[in-house]
């Protein structure tokens, strides 16, 4: 590294990538482990409200400001009978969940989920079973949720206390159907044909819904991206989004490469956006289909069968990942990618929200915010309007996995209505602070409203119930600025969110 390295950022509000879809800040709640039971829903907790929802968890989720919530799975979806989870609770069947080898009591189902979404101020995103479920089952669920009273399934909803339709807008047609582990796994052509026919029936119930096609369950699948091409060619004009899933890991314990994972994320996006363009051209279509990254997070420590098989217990402890500082910096970069690729990524669902690979952990009487809670919160609260194409001049560092990478990973947004500019920066250096000059090219800042940082000296530092404030967002003093520029010194291993009034 050269002596006294310095970085420069150039912000121009006219140099926009795309509108930022608010749905980039969405979540995912699956019937898995303690995500629903003992997470969202825990009548035995002293923090439970009259409906069994955890009030402390609800407050934390409101702070994260999720715009939509995907439900009920996940692998669980492909064996789920949605009618098990409605009606009087004492009449609901208890079943074996084959996906996670757990016991499902069905005490929390569709109507409880709709109430939960209302409580945290988010829109529900429902998924239909394409494994053991039929296209008729999928259509029936749309009628139950969105149909006006007067026919069987809409009347069932009214009998269960909800006369007005829920008007669920976003619907996922199955989950990871490319995966051999999936209940009712289908080959791409078979899935595409089933999804197309389900889409037709679902839209005949409600023509205003938005539909999400299953893409490859990860980019390392041997069928990627051919699966995506085949399914899209069959369904392109019937759907609005194409799903993508990915979980980041640091199995190699190579922090330098791990902190450059944005290169991996961008490659995945670029590959699938190329597939979308190809299929649009081949099908001679007039419409656009966008990407929905509806499972994303860090997951590798709580791995293996002991973390994914529930031994036929109710609410077993499954994949309860403990997140550290370097994980938080990877999550921040992931969200930088969402903004930089906002022209093609329109929905992103953090997987998951409570206990299972989640920003929040609970015991019966307490709750912990993990390190990844804070970057998501800052992006969700500050990023709005348009994503900006930031010109970044940064020193490089070497990684064994990605070669030379810039020390800084950057994104920015501009909201014309509020005249506010948010800047998000990760300093990947493990050892050195980095002075960063920020230049606003077409506008001069009036003030820097706030600067928050998630930073530390140990990449493995993590929050615990005994020490909950090891890795949190801390407000730092704003530097002075000279007309249209300022200089900020970023500590190593840091994520910085800057809120600027123009």
Automatic annotation (TrEMBL):
It is an enzyme of class 3 (hydrolase). Keywords: Carbohydrate metabolism, Glycosidase, Hydrolase. Its EC number is 3.2.1.55. The keyword Zinc does not apply. It catalyses: Hydrolysis of terminal non-reducing alpha-L-arabinofuranoside residues in alpha-L-arabinosides. GO terms for biological process: L-arabinose metabolic process; polysaccharide catabolic process. It holds the Pfam family Alpha-L-AF_C. Residues 294-494 form the Alpha-L-arabinofuranosidase C-terminal domain. One of its GO terms (molecular function) is alpha-L-arabinofuranosidase activity. Gene3D superfamilies: Glycosidases (3.20.20.80), Golgi alpha-mannosidase II (2.60.40.1180). It comes from the Bacteria. Homohexamer; trimer of dimers. Belongs to the glycosyl hydrolase 51 family. This is non-reducing end alpha-L-arabinofuranosidase. It comes from Phototrophicus methaneseepsis.
């Amino acid at each position: 590294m050269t002596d006294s390295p310095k970085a420069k950022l150039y912000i121009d509000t006219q140099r926009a990538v795309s509108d930022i879809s608010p749905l980039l800040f969405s979540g995912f709640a699956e019937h898995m482990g303690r995500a629903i039971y003992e997470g969202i829903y825990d009548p035995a907790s002293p923090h439970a409200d009259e409906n069994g929802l955890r009030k402390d968890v609800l407050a934390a989720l409101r702070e994260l400001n999720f715009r939509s919530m995907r439900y009920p799975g996940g692998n669980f979806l492909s064996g789920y009978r949605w009618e098990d989870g409605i009606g009087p609770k004492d009449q609901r069947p208890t079943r074996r969940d084959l996906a996670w080898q757990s016991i499902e009591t069905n005490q929390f189902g569709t109507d409880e989920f709709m109430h939960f979404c209302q409580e945290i101020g988010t829109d529900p995103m429902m998924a239909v079973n394409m494994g053991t479920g039929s296209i008729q089952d999928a259509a029936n669920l749309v009628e139950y949720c969105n149909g006006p009273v007067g026919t069987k399934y809409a009347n069932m909803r009214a009998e269960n206390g909800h006369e007005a339709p829920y008007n669920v807008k976003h619907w996922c047609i199955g989950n990871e159907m490319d995966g051999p582990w999936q209940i009712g796994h289908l080959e791409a052509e078979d899935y595409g044909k089933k999804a197309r026919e389900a889409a037709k029936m679902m839209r005949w119930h409600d023509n205003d819904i938005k539909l999400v096609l299953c893409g490859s369950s990860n980019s390392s699948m041997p069928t990627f991206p051919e699966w995506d091409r085949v399914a899209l060619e069959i369904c392109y004009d019937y759907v609005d989004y194409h799903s993508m899933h990915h979980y980041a890991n640091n199995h190699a314990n190579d922090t330098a490469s791990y902190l450059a994972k944005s290169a991996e994320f961008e490659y995945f996006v670029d590959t699938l956006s190329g597939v979308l363009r190809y299929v649009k051209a081949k099908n001679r279509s007039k419409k656009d289909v966008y990407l929905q990254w509806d499972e994303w997070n860090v997951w590798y420590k709580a791995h293996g069968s002991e973390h994914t098989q529930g031994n036929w217990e109710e609410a077993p402890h499954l994949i309860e990942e403990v997140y550290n500082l370097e994980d938080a910096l990877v999550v921040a970069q992931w969200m930088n990618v969402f903004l930089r690729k906002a022209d093609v990524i329109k929905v992103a669902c953090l997987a998951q929200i409570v206990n299972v690979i989640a920003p929040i952990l609970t015991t019966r009487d307490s709750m912990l915010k993990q390190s990844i809670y804070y970057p998501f919160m800052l992006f969700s609260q500050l990023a709005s309007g348009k994503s900006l194409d930031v010109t970044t001049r940064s020193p490089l560092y070497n990684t064994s996995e990605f070669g030379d990478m810039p020390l800084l990973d950057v994104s920015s947004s501009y909201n014309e209505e509020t005249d506010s500019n948010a800047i998000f920066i990760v300093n990947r250096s493990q050892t050195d602070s980095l002075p960063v000059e920020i230049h606003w090219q077409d506008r001069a800042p009036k003030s820097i409203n706030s600067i928050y940082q998630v930073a530390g000296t140990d990449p493995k530092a993590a929050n615990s119930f005994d020490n909950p404030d090891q890795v949190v967002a801390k407000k730092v003093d704003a530097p002075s600025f000279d007309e249209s520029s300022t200089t900020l010194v970023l500590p190593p291993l840091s994520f910085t969110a800057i809120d600027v009034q123009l």
